[in-house]
Write a structure and sequence with these properties.
alpha/beta
Length: 108
Amino acid sequence: MAFQVAGKTALITGAGSGICLSFAKLLLQKRCNVVLVDLALRPEAERLLQTYTSGTRAIFQRTDVTSWSQLRRAFDVAEEQFGGTDIVCPGAGVYEPVCIHFGMMYQN
């Protein structure tokens, strides 16, 4: 049996771009509310916020995850907006290489 996310709320750090943004999109498509937690949003993340404004919603909470008080505030916002957090994806800091030659940098 698949885990059902409809009607749940996810808090995703690093969701302003990349892998975590893709995960946020997937959850939203499955009718899961999402708190995008990051320092900033790429344009595609901004568009996602504009798409999910009623019913299933996406909101942004600017957060530096190295600050416990800011991270705590992100959870507080999830509580205020959605009644809590059901899913947490701590994805901030996942490295995304800027070139396809990433592995070559570590060869001797």
